[in-house]
Structure formats: structure tokens, C-alpha cells
Amino acid sequence: MAFFSGLCSIGLLLLAIGYIFHIPTLQLLQNDARISAAVMFLLIGFFHIAKPRKLTYMIEGMLPAPNALVIFTGVLELLLGAGLLFPLTKHHAGWGLIILLIALFPANIRVAVKQLPPPGGLPAKPWYTWSRLLFQPVYILWIWWAIQ
């Protein structure tokens, strides 16, 4: 839900900046959604690379080389997030992120089922870990709509 809050906050801030400073491209909600997704994936990708040990618990025992996988997904998030910012790459980057979100979904299911704490020190209550699963389709739809 923190990711969703970031998407919405950044998107609304960009929209407001567009109207305050009369920037036509930022007055389009779809552009703001794409840019906010890029910013959030760049941030999350950086976190994956900077502190992979904080996320490896989500896949330990599930997949081999969890530290390397967390770093790899961080690199993908950085590359694909940056790709959303460019007209020539936004569609490929968006579909790459959609595929990545689908691929990472089992790790989020594992967190909820095993009652593990969610990443980032957020509440480890069952209501929160299970509700996080409901946001994955929202992120996928957000990206899909933003790259249209």
C-alpha cells in the first residue's frame, strides 16, 4: 500500500505542477501515471540493490540464490522504470514491468501465507499482508493504462 500511496502522491503532484505552471504534458493524467510509476520503480529498484538482504527472506527456501535474485529484480526495476520515461521504450518497459509484477506475485503470496513481515518494516498483521495482494492487479492495470 505504500507503493500505491507513492504512485498516487507523485501522480497528483505532477498533475498539480502541470496546471500551476501550465505544462501541457503534465496536465495529462496518463503521463503523470507513467512518470509516477517510473519514479516508484526507480526507488524500489534502488532499494533492492542497496539492501538486498532486507528482501531475501521473501524467497529464501523457495528459489536458489535469493540475494542474487533480489539484486537482479532491482536491476530490472531500474531499467524498466527508466524505460517508462522515454516514448520509444515506454511500451516495452511497461510490459516488462507487468511481467515482472506477475513473476514476483508468488513471493508476496508467501509473505501472507507464512505470516512474514512485509518489506520495509510495514505492519506484519495478517490484514495488511493479505491486503497487499489486492494491490498487485491495481499496479498492473496502472502500468497498462499509463503506457496506452
TrEMBL record:
<keyword id="KW-0472">Membrane</keyword>
<keyword id="KW-0812">Transmembrane</keyword>
<feature type="transmembrane region" description="Helical">
    <location>
        <begin position="92"/>
        <end position="109"/>
    </location>
</feature>
<feature type="transmembrane region" description="Helical">
    <location>
        <begin position="62"/>
        <end position="86"/>
    </location>
</feature>
<protein>
    <submittedName>
        <fullName>Putative membrane protein</fullName>
    </submittedName>
</protein>
<feature type="transmembrane region" description="Helical">
    <location>
        <begin position="34"/>
        <end position="50"/>
    </location>
</feature>
<feature type="transmembrane region" description="Helical">
    <location>
        <begin position="130"/>
        <end position="147"/>
    </location>
</feature>
<keyword id="KW-1133">Transmembrane helix</keyword>
